[in-house]
Amino acid sequence: MEYVTAAPDPRSEAAAPARSGRRSLAVALLFGALGAAVALLASRQRWAEGTATVAGGTFPLTAKGSDVTGVPAALAIVGLAALVAVFAVRRAGRIAVAALLALSGAGIVVAALVSASDSTALDEKAAQASGDTSATVAALSHTGWPYAAAVGGLLILLAGLLALRFGGRWPAMSGRYERGTDRPRRSARPVDPERPEEIWKALDRGEDPTGV
User: Fold this and answer.
1) Transmembrane segments in this chain: where (predicted)?
2) 14, 128, 180, 210: most buried, per Cβ within 10 A?
């Protein structure tokens, strides 16, 4: 008895990379947008708090993420711009933009983790409040928002890695928006020599109305 093995459908094989490209594109867009939103939100929240001694009493101090470091918010904006720019370039340009996207996420992670226990911003506020340049913050405590910013940076980093791995399968901006791309020119319509207005229009267009 002979068995017949069904040949794989070439259409299904060709559609597999397209499906994986669409899935990776959707995940990268989700990770990039969500990561930037989280990093920006976390930068506006309270990262640290403490007290300063003023006139024999205690004065409460707080520091937002933007007071501690402006790196996460700035790199989140860079990451968003890179996420959009991925679709405007191709080949080597897309690889470069995807690398920038990944580096933006990595920079956010490093900056947030390094600043999670930083007291410089509150020390400066304690010196201003007490009028003593050598004063430092007391009862220092930190919130979890720096780590939330690091999570946002990690999502942007993953989006960049997806763009580096699967970006070649993603769609690009239409060719008509690319510099140097010429639109196909329509062939000139024959000019009727018995209609002077058509002759003048042909001359205005730089065409030879005689058709020679």
Assistant:
1) 25-43, 70-89, 96-116, 144-164
2) 128
Structural contact between residues 64 and 47, judged by C-beta atoms closer than 8 angstroms:
yes
CA 188/CA 207 separation, integer angstroms: 8
| Cα angle value 192/196/202 (rounded, 5°) | 70
In b/e form, how buried is each residue of 17-49, taking b as 16+ CB within 10 angstroms? eeeebeebbeebbebbbebbebbbbbbeeebbb
How, if at all, do strands 57-64 and 138-142 pair?
Answer: unpaired
Q: What is the pTM of this model?
A: 0.72
What whole-number distance in Å separates Cα of residue 42 and Cα of residue 112?
Answer: 10
- Specify the pLDDT at position 14: 46
Task: Give tens-digit pLDDT for 153-200.
Answer: 999 999 999 999 998 888 776 544 445 444 555 555 665 555 656 665
Which of 60, 142, 65, 72 has its CA nearest to residue 105? Answer: 72
Which residue type, as a one-letter code, is found at position 165?
R
CA distances from 65 to 54, 57, 118, 169 (A): 24, 26, 11, 37
